[in-house]
Every structure is written in structure tokens, then in C-alpha cells.
Amino acid sequence: MSKIIDVITEYYRIPLPEIMEDAKHGLHTHFEVPIVKITTDDGRTGVGYTYTGGFGGESIAKLIDKELKAVLINQDPSCVESLWDKMNWGIHYVARGGLASFAIAACDIALWDLRAKKADEPLYKLLGGHSNKVKCYGGAIDLNFPLDKLLKNNQKYLDMGLKAVKIKLGQKTLAEDIERIKAVRELIGPDVTFMVDANMSWSVEKAIKAAKLMNPYDILFLEEPTIPEDYEGYARIAEEGHIAVAGGENLRTPIEFMHMINYGHVDFPQPDASNVGGITGWLKVAALAQTHNLSVSTHGMQELHVSLLAAQPNAGYLEMHSFPIDQYTTRPLVIDKTDGMAVAPEEPGIGVTFDWEKLAPYKTSF
Ligand SMILES: [Mg+2]
């Protein structure tokens, strides 16, 4: 048996290449990447991480360093699911969901890195290896882009070979949103898959109205039309708006996904391993989706999710998110131009190796 002898936490605050806007979080100038390095007494190291849209990253790093480290030290790193449970119950009373789900995620991903490296397997194979590829869409944070820039950006996705794109909604008027949907559909043609994301900006009534107005444009799904806790609202939007709904980036525990499926409605669950308790939490949601005959999709951290999704028989869509974490790794996301699908890495481990030199200027004390 090997033992965890150290848990080192680092915090990076990285400026975005340009200022980006969505409907509820406003302007994004930075993203944050707390990174965890877990070392064992037999000389192995696993690296895990989480990310934020610019707020809370320091607190997450502190939570790992002050609380979760103590849970992990001297434990057997092979017992990943048991450690996930210990971390959850360790801080459950003060932090169920929220920051805890991010902090646990970073540690859990490092443990999976250790597990996959020990097995000498790439993550997608360790998790079942259904495929090494998954459908992928370009998802920009583009609410503040003028129309010509919006179109240029979507053309860029098509030029990359992608067969699916998503835009943000939540302009001052619904008419402006629909005008942008119409223009993008005209640009991409009838064969490219098209999704939209309202980032929780609407009431249920407004979302139903919007859904009806966008029906002529063959929208695959309307993402986060309203606040994530309004399970009944999601059901009403889907039924009365005659549209498929997506969501999950703002759900923090697998049980919240169960509530959304059982008491509300979601056609495309989108768990994000960085905020639903890591790979262990993500897999619980993927299995839940499968038992309900639903596909599973993702939000953010495409460089990791490509392996998680490719492994699944019920894989939906990988979001190629605008926070370019993968640009700070040795293998930015790979798209197969022949079919527009994202390709999982073959190296043993989680397949995310940070470029430490590139990250170095953004390392920040916490
Ligand atoms: Mg979204």
C-alpha cells in the first residue's frame, strides 16, 4: 500500500485574451485555476485542478490547503471513491456544495491522475473506453460581441472543422436575441447543430416566450433558461416552449442532478467535473443520466472532459469553452477535422499536463 505524503496547492489567476460577457455573470476579465499536486511515499505525483470565472479561486485554494489536505495525508491514494466520501463528509456541515465541490474536485482529479498513471492507461480507457472521440461544439462567451464579430467567431469554429456551435442569449430585448439566432443560423446553414445559452437570465414566462420565438431556427437545446433551482420551471419551459433544455453547470452535487431529473426536466444534463466534486462526482451524474435514458454532456475544462465523455456509451456534447485552460497545457484540445469530433489523449493519466513555464507568470499567493 502506498500513502499520500504531501498535498501542495497552487493558485493561478490568468487574464483572458479579451473581455467576455454573459447574461448573469457580467464581464469576465480573468479565470482562476487552483492546482493540487498530491505526492505519495513511493515517489508518484498526481495533478488535479479546478477553475472559476474570476471569483472564489483563492478561497477554494485555502479550503484545500487548510481542510482537505488534512483529510488526505497518510491515506491510501488508491481508494479514490472512499477519499471522495471522506472529503465530502469532512466539510459537509460547513460547506455542502458551493466552494467545497470545487475544492474536492481538484483533489479528486489528482487522485484519478495517480490511479490512471499507476494503471498505465489513458483516462478514457480506464473509464470504459467506449470511444476515443466525442461530438464537440464551440461555445463562446459572446453576449457583448457586435453581430459582425459574432458571425466571424462562429465562422472560426466552422473553419476549425466543428459541426456544432452555441451562442449566448440575454440581450436587452428578445428581438435582438432572435435577430442574432437568425443571423447565425443563416451563416452556419441547416446542417450544423446550433445551441443557445441564456445563462439563467430569464423568468420562466420569458423563457417560454423566447423558446417559441426560436423554434423556427432548429435549436438543439436552450441552456440554463432560468435559475438552476427552479426544477418545475425547467419542466414548464420544455413543455410549453416546445424545446429541449440543458443545464448543470450550476448544480454542485450529483443529488441536485437527481432532483432536476426527477422533479423538473432536463434533456441534456451538463455536469462539470471541476464543480461537481471531480471525476468521481461527474461519473455519478453520467451514470444517473444513463439510467434515465439521457445523454451526458459537459461544461468547461474540455481538455479533461474529452476523456470522460469519450469513455461513455451515452456521450452527448463536449463544450469547447472560452476559458482557454487547455492553452496552458502541453496538449490543447485536438479536433479531428474530418468529422469535427474532439479526440481524447492517449497518454497514461488524466491527459492534462500543465505547461508550468507558461503558467508561471500567473502564479499568485493565497
Ligand atoms: Mg452555459
Notable features of this structure?
three-stranded antiparallel β-sheet; nine-stranded mixed β-sheet; single chain; TIM Barrel; 366 residues; alpha/beta; 2 domains; Enolase-like, domain 1
Description:
There is one protein chain. By secondary structure, this protein is an alpha/beta fold. The protein has two domains: 4-121 and 357-362, Enolase-like, N-terminal domain (Enolase-like, domain 1); 125-343, Enolase-like C-terminal domain (TIM Barrel, Alpha-Beta Barrel). The protein has twelve helices and twelve strands. Helix 2 runs antiparallel to helix 3, helix 5 packs parallel to helix 6 and helix 7 runs parallel beside helix 8 (231-241). The radius of gyration is 20 Å and the shape is globular. The two termini are 33 Å apart. The protein binds magnesium ion (MG). Residues 197, 199, 223-224, 249, 299 line the site of magnesium ion.
List the helices and strands and how they pair.
Layout: E1 4-22, E2 26-40, E3 45-49, H1 57-72, H2 80-91, H3 98-119, H4 123-126, E4 133-139, H5 147-159, E5 164-168, H6 174-188, E6 193-197, H7 204-214, E7 222-223, H8 231-241, E8 245-247, H9 254-263, E9 268-269, H10 278-291, H11 302-310, E10 317-321, E11 334-336, E12 341-343, H12 356-359
Sketch the topology as an H/E string, one letter per element. EEEHHHHEHEHEHEHEHEHHEEEH
Q: Do you know the CATH architecture of the largest domain? A: Alpha-Beta Barrel
Overall 3D form: globular
User: Remind me, CATH topology of the largest domain?
Assistant: TIM Barrel
Helix content: 25-40%
